[in-house]
Amino acid sequence: MKNKRYSLFFRHPLAEISFAQKFFACRLGFRTLVLAVSCMVSCVRAEPNVRMWTDAAKAEREDADFLIQGEYRSDGAESVHGAQVIALGGGKFDAVIFTGGLPGAGWEPSMYRVKLRGEMANGGLTLVSASGKTKAVIEKGQLTLTKKSGAVVTMKRLERKSPTLGEKAPSGAMVLFDGSSTEHWEKAVMEDGEMTASGATSKKLFGSYRLHVEFRTPYRPNARGQQRGNSGIYHSGRWETQILDSFGLEVESNECGGIYSIAKPRLNLCLPPLAWQTYDVEFTAATFDASGKRTAWPRMTVRLNGVVIHDDLELTKDFTASAPLSVPLKTATGPIHLQDHGNPVRFRNIWIVEK
After folding, report:
1. pLDDT: is 224 or 88 the higher one?
2. CA 134, 139, 143 angle in degrees (round to 5)?
3. Which of 18, 28, 283, 288 has its CA 20 to 30 A from that of 103?
4. CA-based angle 256:304:298, to the nearest 5?
5. C-alpha distances out from residue 66 to 136, 145, 189, 216, 241, Å
6. Separation of alpha carbons 315 and 308, rounded Å
7. H-type helices in the chain, by residue range?
């Protein structure tokens, strides 16, 4: 009877395979279950990231946080302060307080800054530093800062604009895009007079030049890191000035203003999402001898929103990720390339002056 019971048990399909195979099958089934649950959790967690706006007027109507995020500045001449308030979705915010004013308008890296964190409650936003000694309250477009010394500073919300925004192409410039056509580009897509970040590459190759580009990142408060308005401008098809919603963040080479993987900017001059911003770049091409050997690396001076963030920087490294890989690496000329990173970044008013 005992043997019969065991013989019935071992008629199970698993009885025809080895113990190791049974173990692997059970483990595989468990891993499949875990993977399925993880995918469901990931989908649930990723869903808020779908919330995204490419139009400021619509963002104002549909998301109350949009009118809170942005820049603030005090009017007092004796105690000038600035603040950048970053929307993180669902009424949550980070803020950075600067003494001396805002980056590029009074504050320099050697000056004091402190980070605060908070969320909406009872119609107002309260943000507190990690130490609990610095506090800010935002109500009706006004930020009231209480410093650790007990001093109180009042700041009002403002919208800065780049001094080169809308700058017209000078005499002798080649207009690459003015909203009327994409004739100077390969793979370009135009929507409502603006060019999308579709991986467009200029048909013409350039050596040394001065380039003006205007761009706008989307408002995507729930997204983080490189998923928050990612694109870039490749110079000579190789060196990228990064585009990203890096508003209020620390400066890094992979943040807006960085020369990707090569150098971080001197200051973070990134404006809030959905603000039109400008890159003005003076690019000096690399040089090569008759045999094709490089005799000098390229150099670059970069202005983000009118402020110098890289000053005649030597680019001592080739970088080609996501760039047009068909471009030879031993030539002084190359295309302008607008990176497609799957984000609805927009471009306008692009012109170039060859040297």
Report:
1. 88
2. 40
3. 283
4. 85
5. 18, 20, 28, 15, 27
6. 16
7. 2-9, 19-46, 56-62
Rounded to 5°, the CA angle 350-351-353 comes to: 155
Mean pLDDT confidence for 25-33: 41
CA torsion 244-250-251-255 (nearest 10°) is: -20
Q: Is 127 exposed, middle or buried (0-12, 13-18, 19+ CB in 10 A)?
A: buried
Q: How far is CA 183 from CA 96, 177, 323, in A?
A: 43, 8, 20
pLDDT tens across 72-120, in order? 999 866 679 999 999 999 999 999 999 999 999 999 999 999 999 999 9
Six token digits for residue 237:
């098809």
Max CA distance (Å), the chain: 102
Q: Indicate the class that CATH gives domain 56-158.
A: mainly beta
pLDDT tens per residue, range 289-318: 988 889 999 999 999 999 999 999 999 987
pLDDT at 150 over 90: yes
Nearest to 240 by CA among 126, 155, 137, 335: 335
How confident is the prediction for the chain on average, in pLDDT? 86
Contacts of 321 (CB under 8 A, 6+ apart): 260, 261
Fold of 174-354: Jelly Rolls (2.60.120)
Q: CA–CA distance from 185 to each of 105, 205, 254 (Å)?
A: 36, 11, 26
Instruction: Specify the pLDDT at position 37.
Output: 38
How do the domains of the chain map onto residue ranges?
56-158, 174-354
pLDDT band at 320 (very low <50, low <70, confident <90, very high): low
Asked if domains 56-158 and 174-354 share a fold, the reply is no
Tokens of 198: 């579709």
Q: Which neighbouring-strand residues pair with 107?
A: 103
pLDDT value for 225 = 78
